[in-house]
Design goal:
alpha/beta; Tex N-terminal region-like; Nucleotidyltransferase, domain 5; 6 domains; five-stranded mixed beta sheet; five-stranded mixed β-barrel; 12% strand
């Protein structure tokens, strides 16, 4: 275990005295949000990112340790395990290194080399490897003629087969060849059918060094190859690798003809294809990791968009033939009325639509209109913008809402359970309205990979994608906290320590016994025991309960500490956030208080922050969605025009920005900043409001190039 902790510390750059207690907490089934928030003294105040990195490396190195054990056992069973080999295997810190060391001992299917050994040609192979340059190899080969070997030429061929496999299995040589290929290899692509049209035209005749090719191009090339559009090959430094192999194979003296032939065969037949697979697998794995990170960061930004609290919203799910379904939702997310109008072709009932809109705004005092960005979105937007300009509702505005995943949610069992009397498009209209009221609460109902804010997510390993995105949702939910008396089961299921079954029980208990009055009532919920309570309690809020601390992020285990702190400051806890309490907390010497109360300073700092800003939502600092009262068309924009837009998606090569026309514009990474940046996420996140300038317009292709440079 000590070796694993040391390896994690070395790989992550985190001190061992922080890694070890963090690993102990993880092994005790403590969740990552809980550890990062409520065990700061134990971990040395590691943040969630660092703890997740430790968790990933812990799993990786434990898999490595397990594989090392298996390999040692297999080699020992063959009677070939030496102390030197054991040390090498145990010193390996990558699975590929362990597999390279095991390769010579791995049971193989029948190969040319194994057949040559069966014919007794191992001795001739050893002779060729070790004989002096002046030796007569042909004469030596004659000694190996037997019933299965009919000539010196056949004997030499078999010996070369043995040498080729020996060289290809040599772990040091294999790693050296892989290193050269990583450094100097070039990925080359060629189209299979000339004049074939596809979105992959840039890869019809393309080459780029593997050391520099970006992740998004790797995934694009892989997809084009999978769709049988292109051929892909790795051009390697054959001359340099053959020279390296000869130098490592020679025992002294000039190169020998038979050895040269064997080395060439080892490379071309055995090593080159294997190294190409290795390098391409490495590139793909690296690209997938990058894509996962981009998707995860985009998703987190989307989940943490600012909620529009206290507003009545009219949500519209646009369509043509079947009409636009709409739903009026009150500030608490309750559906007030649902219906359909037909402002779009073929019916184009614009006057009737305006009449319905007038009635809805007057009856329910609608504050804003949310329009889904799917089919018929812009046609619907024209009608809504015209209505707002002509109507006498000066504060009324609209916004375009991404409806990615809305159809997935609307057709799900969860949506059917929540709205059993509504059809799919009506549920979608409700979801669109709620997305701007509380993006997090609504988006957690959707499978994260269906939200559509990544790059090549459909090409990523399903299990890794699901694990990564679920971790992001879990992190976001626990970062914000959850209202215990309003949260849906879908939202509660992401709270630390609570699974889907327990989340349903929490809601059922609330429905049966009325609103929760204190956190301790959670212990009465079926299947929610002390361990789950410890993990979850701090992330669950009760806004008007019996104990004012239940409305804060302070964990119940720290309530006695809060009491001692308040007594020490001679303050009153009944009104957290009051000027009297705030003044005393802000003027307190917390280092001195921590010593006198025998408390951890990080926990004390968090308690004070929670008491100073009770009920604070971290999303308050995020800009609200952009609301418009008029519509912008593709024909209306001009080069040089300065606009404000919403970042809809961030990818490796730039960001797509909604500027109010049907097509999102692209800000290429080179147009994001006057300084060099390595990735667009250094500058923008999904949901950001950005000021941009129109750089190029291709109306035929419906493409808009934007710049963020001054």
């Amino acid at each position: 275990m000590d070796s694993i902790i040391a390896a994690i510390a070395l790989e992550s750059g985190i001190a061992q005295n922080k890694v070890a207690p963090t690993v102990a907490l993880l092994d005790d089934d403590k969740t990552i949000p809980f550890i990062s928030r409520y065990r700061k003294e134990v971990t040395g105040e590691l943040d969630e990112v660092s703890i997740r990195r430790i968790d990933e490396l812990l799993k990786l190195f434990r898999r490595l340790a397990q594989r090392q054990k298996e390999v040692l056992r297999h080699i020992e069973e063959q009677g070939q395990l030496t102390q030197k080999l054991r040390d090498k295997i145990m010193a390996a810190n990558r699975l590929t290194e362990v597999e390279d060391l095991y390769r010579p001992f791995r049971p193989k299917r029948r190969t040319r080399a194994s057949m040559a050994r069966d014919k007794g040609l191992q001795g001739l192979a050893d002779y060729i490897l070790n004989c002096p340059p002046t030796a007569n190899v042909q004469q030596e080969a004659e000694k190996y003629i037997n019933e299965e070997v009919d000539s010196p030429a056949a004997a030499l061929q078999g010996a070369r087969d043995v040498i080729a496999e020996t060289l290809a299995d040599d772990p040091d040589l294999r790693q050296a060849a892989r290193k050269i290929s990583r450094r100097s290899g070039v990925l080359v692509t060629k189209v299979k059918e000339e004049n074939k049209e596809s979105v992959y035209s840039m890869y019809y005749d393309y080459r780029e060094p593997v050391s520099r090719i970006p992740s998004h191009r790797i995934l694009a090339i892989n997809r084009a190859e999978k769709e049988d559009i292109i051929r892909v090959a790795l051009k390697q430094d054959q001359e340099g690798i053959l020279q390296m192999m000869m130098q490592k194979s020679l025992k002294g003296g000039p190169p020998r003809e038979q050895l040269t032939l064997a080395v060439s065969d080892a490379w071309k037949r055995l090593l080159a294809p294997a190294i190409e697979r290795d390098i391409r697998n490495e590139l793909t794995e690296k690209a997938q990791t990058q894509a996962l990170q981009v998707f995860a960061q985009n998703l987190r930004s989307l989940l943490l968009q600012k909620p529009l609290k206290g507003k009545t919203i009219l949500g519209i799910d646009p369509a043509y033939r079947t009409g636009c379904k709409w739903a009026v939702v009150n500030p608490n997310g309750m559906v007030l009325e649902i219906g359909v109008f037909y402002p779009t072709p073929p019916r184009s009932e614009i006057d009737k639509t305006r009449g319905v809109l007038t009635r809805l705004v007057e009856t329910y005092r609608v504050d804003a209109i949310a329009i889904g960005n799917g089919t018929a979105s812009r046609e619907t937007e024209h009608v809504i913008a015209g209505f707002i300009q002509q109507a006498s509702f000066p504060d009324l505005a609209y916004t375009i809402v991404s409806e990615a995943g809305a159809s997935v949610y609307s057709a799900s069992a969860l949506a059917a359970e929540e709205f059993p009397g509504l059809d799919v498009s009506e549920r979608s209209a409700v979801s669109i309205a709620r997305r701007i009221q509380d993006p997090l609460a609504e988006l957690v109902k959707i499978d994260p990979k269906s939200i559509g804010v990544g790059q090549y997510q459909h090409d990523l390993p399903a299990r890794h994608l699901e694990e990564s995105l679920n971790a992001v949702v879990e992190s976001a939910v626990n970062y914000i906290g959850v209202d215990l008396n309003t949260a849906s089961p879908a939202l509660l299921a992401y709270v630390a320590g609570i699974n889907a079954a327990v989340a349903k029980n929490v809601v059922q208990y609330r429905e049966s016994h009325g609103p929760y009055q204190k956190r301790q009532q959670l212990l009465n919920v079926p299947q929610l025991g002390p361990k789950a309570f410890e993990q979850a309690a701090g992330f669950l809020r009760i806004s008007e309960g019996l104990n004012p601390l239940d409305a804060t992020s302070i964990h119940p285990e720290s309530y006695p500490l809060v009491t001692n702190l308040i007594n020490c400051l001679e303050a009153d806890l009944q009104n957290p956030g009051s000027p009297n309490l705030r003044d005393k907390l802000q003027s307190a010497d917390l280092k001195h208080v921590a010593v006198s109360l025998e408390a951890g300073l990080p926990t004390l700092n968090d308690i004070v922050e929670a008491l100073l800003r009770p009920g604070r939502d971290p999303r308050e600092d995020v800009p609200p969605p952009i609301f418009r009262q008029d519509v912008l068309t593709m024909d209306a924009i001009e080069i040089g025009m300065e606009l404000e837009g919403v970042v809809r998606n961030v990818v490796d090569f730039g960001a797509f920005v909604d500027i109010g026309v049907k097509t999102d514009g692209l800000v290429h990474i080179s147009e994001m900043s006057v300084r060099h940046i390595r990735h667009p996420l250094e500058i923008v996140s999904t949901g950001d409001i950005v000021k941009i300038r129109v750089l190029k317009i291709d109306r035929a292709q419906k493409r808009i190039a934007l710049t963020m440079k001054p």
